[in-house]
Amino acid sequence: MRLRVGQRLNEITPTHYPASEIDAAINEAQRLFCLLTLALETTASWTPAVTFTHMLTVFSDWIAPLRIATAAGAKIRPVKLIDLAALDPAWPSASGAIERYNFSGVDLVAVYPTAGTALSVTYARSPLPLVGDSDEPEIPAQYDPVLIKYAIYRCRQGEGAQELEKVLPYYKAFLDAAEQYAGFVVQRQMDRGLRYDTLPFELAKFRELEGTKND
User: Which of 63, 69, 82, 87 is the most buried (most CB within 10 A)?
Assistant: First the structure.
């Protein structure tokens, strides 16, 4: 993939791009694709010892919670902080069997009450970085071309507005693909009867405001 990006860049401009810069652009493309689509997920055990936890300190590939349950499989319901405060003004110091959780910001999760018992956490994760020449992206192979397009767009951002404008369609193609796959992820969840707590970002609405949808 690195070679293909380098070849395409040289077709557009003779500027030399280090392999490290190309690798960084490809990995950024893959991470952004997974962030927008929640394409990858995993399940792991987590034992919260305190009320608030930055989940990136627990799972370095954390993106967002999809489902949290007890070890026995009982679902822990998501709740807003304002509702927790209405339910129990002293909720941050409450102890007992965990019944609810709140997800705020990038990775902050609060549990209520707090108990040192194991939970099963299904979460959307970021992809493994591509390092070696034989490494392949974890997202479906049919989306490899848009990773290449995004990497070209990303590498050329430093060349000025006129040069960047030439590859702006590559960025739009990347967003088209992410929007398409996000819809597939939602439909897959529905087909499997999964009631996940977090859905992919509503990219279509954002793009209407930003004006980045292809005709």
Answer: 63
